[in-house]
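Structure first, sequence second, as always.
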């Protein structure tokens, strides 16, 4: 029996929660999935992250994923491609955020150091504030603000309907604004975007 032909049996065991079977699928397909991710992102670390996400999603959705031509590889390749594209969009938005942070026109080293420190502190405060949110709400904020997904696209990824996701997103942004105190101008996009249906 060829390796491809026996994958259906391995997948059945993985769907029945066999970690050993899932590890075998990972061994078989990780290189192809990583190559696909590498073609879509600039950094090796991003390709590794996208590969990990694809396999994590395969495990998480194992009860519903259907084999294509006797293998999970097509599903993995589509998932890693979507993940890598979202990473690229998120990276672009993150670089845009960094570029929007006010810089000293005079090149004053002390001012530059203060801006850098304030930015780091703001990042820590934002992470802490996000960690107090319900995980679904934090995921919605990240998917819409950083990854650039619409609410309609992000909602099913966290197990919600679009209407419920829109309401939760609005409340989550309000809560973050309260937790962060005065709304920092360079985080306005993070706290207000995600309205697109």
């Amino acid at each position: 029996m060829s390796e491809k032909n026996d994958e259906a049996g391995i997948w059945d065991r993985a769907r029945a929660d066999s970690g050993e079977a899932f590890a075998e699928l990972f061994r078989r397909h990780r290189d192809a999935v990583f190559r696909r991710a590498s073609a879509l992102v600039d950094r090796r670390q991003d390709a590794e992250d996208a590969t990990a996400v694809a396999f994590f999603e395969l495990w998480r959705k194992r009860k519903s994923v259907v084999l294509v031509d006797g293998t999970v590889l097509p599903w993995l390749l589509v998932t890693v491609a979507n993940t890598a594209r979202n990473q690229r969009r998120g990276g672009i938005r993150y670089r845009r955020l960094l570029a929007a942070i006010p810089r000293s026109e005079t090149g004053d080293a002390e001012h530059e150091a203060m801006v850098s420190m304030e930015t780091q502190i703001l990042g820590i405060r934002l992470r802490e504030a996000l960690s107090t949110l319900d995980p679904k709400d934090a995921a919605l904020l990240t998917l819409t603000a950083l990854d650039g997904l619409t609410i309609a696209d992000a909602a099913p990824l966290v197990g919600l309907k679009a209407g419920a996701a829109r309401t939760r997103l609005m409340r989550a942004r309000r809560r973050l604004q309260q937790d962060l105190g005065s709304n920092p101008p360079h985080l306005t996009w993070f706290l207000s975007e995600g309205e697109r249906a």
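Margin note: The chain is about 70% helix and 0% strand.
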